[in-house]
Structure formats: structure tokens, C-alpha cells
């Protein structure tokens, strides 16, 4: 697989991947900023406010009509979180005109419309249109509330929030609902202007394109007076827990959610990162993993049991859904699996199956242009770029001894239990 051709000019980082693999051209624009209390909610709202109207397309319906005229192009915006960085992202997909029977310049039209949305919003009295902002505040409150509706997501977020209290990572990617009261059309517009002018900006284009033409189009339609920051803060990854934190939340639930947060002392940029990926796969990444087999299948204690990595922060967290009265037994068996890994009780089959599963999942990323852009973005955040081929090769070389070494440096940090309101589980 080819790698991105990257260059920097006039405050914009360009990353172009010419390929004939896709019939669509994919454009991803990402603004990097530090997670920050008070601003996270604003940054998360900005893409949605921008999608409500531009100077030339003053309503969301008008924007959608313009996209429809480009053979059903799509344009979306949102935010994500990698480590302690918040990313404001826009994704545009447009048909490659090379595969049409006319000479319509769809790539240029797509970049032009994206530019309008990003840099030429509807304004009113020196700020955003107040009606847009008020409606979007209502929608954003609903987005934040919706996390509570999905108890699996809610429990994971609460576990990580408690685990990293006092660290920037504890700030939710959507910000806090309590911050919405202070947001208005003017201060949100000021934050937007700061973001557009000073946040490091990366433009990805994937498709059957010529890099020189892509760069000329971006320079034609995107502003040339950006002064991006060069001092974004690195993630705090050296935290060592002094004692295990135990947290119990009580809500109207029938099924308990037992989540466990661990500090790995390894991040995406470290040499031992591939070994951590394999460790996580053996522990809880697949149906053959120890958590799934021992907690769910053999002991019949969990409706689900898995583990995930927050690799830009150096965190691993375990998720399980259990009967509330089985808390003690489930926690014991989960801890037992962690100990089994430390003792080196992992088979050659577990190692082999995990590597194969990881490689298959890595290869699916190569089928997605936005997945390739996201992989590159992760490299920017961590400070180390790895192509998918390099990651696959590194995973194949991971030894059993390296996995055991990872197992013995991981520290238990937080045990979080979401349960019903009837009482507090023994041991919780």
C-alpha cells in the first residue's frame, strides 16, 4: 500500500494518497487542539453549527442540495479524542469525475463547498447566527444525554473519567453539559475563529488524483493567513497508581457493568506497542480471548467481556456486563486472567490466533480511506508514524516473552461498577 505524500505550505499540512482503488475521492480535514475544560463543548458544537449554513448556502437544506447536485456527495463533521487531544473533523466524499462521461470538476466543487462550510459561515451581529447556536445547544445536550442511554458506553466513559480525574484525558470529547449555559453566538464564534486560525490543520485527500492539482485547489479555496500553534501538549502517560480506586455508581439498571482500568506504561509511539496490542488481543480482543472464554463461556458470569486500548494515553480497560450479585466472583475471575498473563500461561494457539485476528482487522483499515487518514492522524498525535504494513510486520515478530513482559508492567488502577439502586454489592 502506498503511503501519504505530505507537505506543508501556508499553515496547512497536505497529505495526498493517489490510488485507483476507490471510485470516490475522500477529503478529510482535521484540526488538532488540546482537550480543555470549557472549550471542549464549544469545539464539539462547531462542526454542527457550521453545517447549518454558509454565506452562499444559508441553510442546511441548501448545503444538502449542493451536495446532491454533485452526484450525491456527502459532507459530515464531528469531533474525536486521541489521548489528550481533541480533533475537530470534517469528511467529504465525492465521485471521481474520471469515472463519469462528462467533464464536470467534482473534486474542485467538493473542495470549494467544504471551504465554504469551514471558512464562510452565516454570520449575525459579529458572531454566529444566534438561532443556529441555540438550536445546536439543544441538540448537543441531547448528544451528551444519549451517552447515558447506552449503559456500556456510559460505564466505559465513567470508568475512564474516574481513573484519570485531574488529567486532561478525563474531559469528555463532547465536553460537559454544564458548559452549554455559558455558550452564546459571540463567544462560540470567537472560539471558532481561534480554532480556524491557530489549530494545526491537516488535509487528507485519498483517491485517483494528482497531488499537484489537489494542492493547488486547496490553496485556491482555503485561507493563506493561518498561524498554527506548534506547542500542543503531550499526553500525560507516566501516571503510576498509588492504590486501586473503587467506584460504584447506582442507576436504574437490571444488569451490572463491571469495568476495570489499567495503566500500561506503553503508548502508540513506544517500541513495545506491538507487544501491547498482542497482549490486549489475548486478554480480551477476540472470541478466543481469555476474558471471553473464562468469564463469559466457562463461568457464564458475563453477557459480554472484552478489553480495549486507549493507546495514545497508555490505558487498557476491561468491560463486562454481569448479574449484579455476581460482582465478587466476576472480579475474581477477571483478576485471575490478568495473573495468568503475568505467569506466562498463554498457549501458542492463543498467540497465533490473536496475531491472525489482529492482521485481519488491520487489513480492513486499508479498505477505508478515512481509516487510512485516521491511522496517519494517530501517528501525528503520538509522534510516530507506522504504516499498516509496518504494524503487521511488528505484530508478527512479537514473542511470548515480550507479551509476558508487558503483562508484568501493567498496573491495576480503577475498578468501576455500575449497578442498580437496591444496595451496594459486597466488596464493591
Automatic annotation (TrEMBL):
It comes from Effusibacillus consociatus. Residues 183-358 form the Peptidase M16 C-terminal domain. Pfam families: Peptidase_M16_C. InterPro entries: Metalloenz_LuxS/M16, MPP/UQCRC_Complex, Peptidase_M16_C. This is EF-P 5-aminopentanol modification-associated protein YfmF. The gene is yfmF.
Amino acid at each position: 500500500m502506498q503511503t501519504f505524500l505530505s507537505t506543508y505550505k501556508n499553515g496547512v499540512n497536505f497529505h495526498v494518497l493517489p490510488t485507483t482503488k476507490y471510485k470516490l475521492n475522500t477529503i478529510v480535514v482535521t484540526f488538532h487542539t488540546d482537550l480543555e475544560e470549557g472549550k471542549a463543548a464549544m469545539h464539539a458544537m462547531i462542526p454542527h453549527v457550521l453545517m447549518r449554513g454558509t454565506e452562499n448556502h444559508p441553510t442546511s437544506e441548501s448545503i444538502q442540495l449542493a451536495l446532491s447536485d454533485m452526484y450525491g456527495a456527502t459532507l459530515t463533521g464531528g469531533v474525536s479524542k486521541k489521548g489528550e487531544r481533541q480533533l475537530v473533523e470534517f469528511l467529504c466524499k465525492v465521485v471521481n469525475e474520471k469515472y463519469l462521461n462528462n467533464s464536470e470538476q467534482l473534486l474542485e466543487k467538493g473542495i470549494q463547498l467544504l471551504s465554504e462550510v469551514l471558512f464562510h459561515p452565516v454570520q449575525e451581529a459579529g458572531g454566529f447566527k444566534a438561532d443556529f447556536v441555540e438550536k445546536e445547544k439543544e441538540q448537543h445536550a441531547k448528544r451528551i444525554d444519549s451517552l447515558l442511554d447506552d449503559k456500556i458506553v456510559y460505564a466505559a466513559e465513567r470508568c475512564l473519567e474516574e481513573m484519570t480525574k485531574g488529567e486532561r484525558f478525563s474531559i469528555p470529547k463532547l465536553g460537559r453539559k454544564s458548559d452549554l449555559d455559558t455558550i452564546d453566538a459571540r463567544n462560540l464564534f470567537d472560539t471558532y475563529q481561534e480554532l480556524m486560525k491557530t489549530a494545526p490543520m491537516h488535509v487528507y485527500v485519498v483517491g485517483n488524483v494528482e497531488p499537484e492539482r489537489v494542492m493547488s485547489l486547496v490553496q485556491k479555496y482555503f485561507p493563506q493567513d493561518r498561524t498554527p500553534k506548534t506547542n500542543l501538549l503531550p499526553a500525560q502517560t507516566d501516571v503510576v497508581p498509588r492504590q486501586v480506586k473503587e467506584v460504584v455508581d447506582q442507576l436504574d439498571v437490571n444488569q451490572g457493568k463491571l469495568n476495570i482500568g489499567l495503566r500500561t506504561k506503553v503508548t502508540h509511539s513506544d517500541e513495545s506497542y506491538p507487544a501491547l496490542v498482542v497482549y490486549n488481543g489475548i486478554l480480551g480482543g477476540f472470541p478466543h480471548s481469555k476474558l471471553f472464554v473464562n468469564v463469559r463461556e466457562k463461568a457464564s458470569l458475563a453477557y459480554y467481556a472484552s478489553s480495549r486500548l486507549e493507546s495514545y494515553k497508555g490505558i487498557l480497560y476491561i468491560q463486562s456486563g454481569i448479574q449484579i450479585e455476581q460482582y465478587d466472583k466476576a472480579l475474581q475471575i477477571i483478576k485471575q486472567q490478568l495473573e495468568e498473563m503475568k505467569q506466562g500461561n498463554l498457549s501458542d494457539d492463543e498467540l497465533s490466533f490473536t496475531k491472525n485476528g489482529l492482521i485481519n482487522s488491520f487489513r480492513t483499515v486499508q479498505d477505508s480511506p478515512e481509516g487510512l487518514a485516521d491511522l496517519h492522524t494517530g501517528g501525528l498525535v503520538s509522534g510516530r508514524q507506522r504504516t499498516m504494513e509496518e504494524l503487521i510486520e511488528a505484530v508478527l515478530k512479537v514473542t511470548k516473552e515480550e507479551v509476558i513482559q508487558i503483562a508484568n508492567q501493567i498496573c491495576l488502577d480503577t475498578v468501576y461498577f455500575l449497578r442498580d439502586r437496591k444496595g451496594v454489592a459486597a466488596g464493591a
